[in-house]
Specification:
It is a single chain. It is built from 30 helices and no strands. It is an all-alpha fold. The longest helix is centred in the middle third of the chain and has 30 residues, at about 335-360. The radius of gyration is 26 Å and the shape is globular.
Amino acid sequence: MRPNHPPTGAQPIGHPSNGRGKTFFGSEETAEAQTAQEVLERFEKKRSYSGAPAALITVIAVLAACYHLVYAYWHPFFALDHRALHWLFMSMLVFILYPFTQKRSPRTRMSVFDGVFLSASVGICIWIFFNSTAIMNRAGAYHTQDVVLGAALVIIVLEAARRSTGPAVPIIALVFIGYTFLGRYLPDAISHRGYTVERLSTYLSLSTDGIFGVPMGVSANFILLFILYGALLRKTGAGQFFTDVAFALTGWTKGGPAKAAVVSSTFFGMISGSSVANTVTTGSFTIPLMKRTGYPGHFAAGVEASSSTMGQIMPPIMGAAAFIMAEFLGISYFKVCVAAAIPAVLAFFSTFMQVHFRAVSLGLSGLPRSELPRIRDAFAKGWHHIFSIFLLIYFLMQDYSPERAVFWAILATIASAFMMSLLRRESLKTFLRQIVEGLSEGALGSVEVAAACAAAGIIIGSITMTGLGIKFSSLVVDASMGNLFLALPFTMIACLFLGMGVPTTAQYVIISSLVAPALVQMGVEAIAAHLFILYFGTRADITPPVALAAYAGAGIAGSDPWRTGVDAFQLGIAGFIIPFMFVYAKELLFIGAIGQIVLALVSAALGVTCLAAAVQRCLLMKTKWYEAVVLYAVAFMLIKPGLATDIIGAGLFAVVLAWQWVGRKRRAMPAIDHSTQPSA
């Protein structure tokens, strides 16, 4: 659901008001919004259209959104038919919006080359749609036409992925294609008998095991609808509502704007299209506010970037990879959300506490309450946004499919927005414009994910054909000598390196197909292995040297990108440790007795608090170097499962806390001037 690049149409949302017609920024408001838009445009790779072409793109996008809504309720077609129509719409938008090259291709119109790719893709998809039954019936005995059109579709998908997600994904896909051809010439450990062009092209293009396999099915059935739901929430004002609530709740506390940034960015990240877009959208007003209250620019940008990446791991609306995970594991999406809940809360809590400790260290205070929105006013204006979210959670808890649950949530969003427009006496034209823009942005925001899923299908198909998954799992087990404590770091490094150049969805598909079976073989719970891979895939956006979200925040803050990336990495450091925690303590995934789960949660929460204090070198006040060392030790004792280490860690934490409390009391005591005391 969340590509690594900003979705089309992502605009800075309105700046939060204080409920009295004022804004936080004053004269700086427009300048900061313009800065955010400039940063977003630097990361944007799409063409810019106006006039009739722009209207035509909107029509195509709205038709795509409406088709997927219709399919979500009625399911009029079989899987291959539906996925072919999904790719028809998505590929049209890819070749309309993304130029062949960023420097030489026209930026305001299509080229002839684009038209050729678009026409070929649409033609092949229509041919598959009308001939799907015959194609499936002659599986294994394909005609020359099947081979030619299948090979052409593979090329089209690779080009679409290159334009929209960058060169990394298609290059990896080409490596796997080469592997299928050259298997007999490779070392015995990874060799296979090899496949012909005829066999590979038809398998990848004309079955539900390649391009139109599980990733594309998830994109067509779930991802587009959830992105559509997020776009409609944004357009109807949910982003403003979440931001106002966050500032009302936390803006007045120590370092309040930074805490509000963590809260609002995490919630807004659940309905935004990417960590980069989320950073520049909410960051356009949170970063200046953090700087205004005394945070350094690089730290303010790091807070925003770190918080913005958490949307992909925060239930109930997680990233696209979570939906694919549910399909891979054969479990409901709701069960994935339940398993992901405690780790996501711990990651959020760690960042929140780091922000608090930095505020204590710098002696910062919050914003005056007069400059903040009132919680009552915020809910009076935006209470209806909660209804559709609770409805979504309710349907998921009732074991509805994510597709059907989000369908009703979308209808509830539209209905509630319509009722509020009537109550506020807004024009019908304004309401319709919001809905049309939401439908359009939802479809446009799905394009990159669809292209990544199509290319991932090529990779999955190649792995399935050759049996590479089993071979690679054996290699991982052998390389780690069967030791989990070696296999997990290997997996982490692979995820981080691949995630630096590949969207999260594609990265998860590749690594989970190759490595997850090995982790399961070593005794890791299946869902823990998959979540482990997902977590480190999301960390790439705040891990230097390719920390895109951090660099986007640096552009708004005017700070050094590298230093911002380091701060974002530090603020998100719990996200690098929590995956190891839930692998060894499955209670953190809601697996086990309730007493064990509560004990694991309390221990882990105290552990990430100590980690946050150690990283920021502050608890009740600035820590000495030896106090920080003890806090690091305590953090790892509490993070490691085991009652003995928990007791020792809690005891050491109590000692450090008491030492700091006494030290703060001494510092607060007024000094006694003995020269003024009467002599005995």
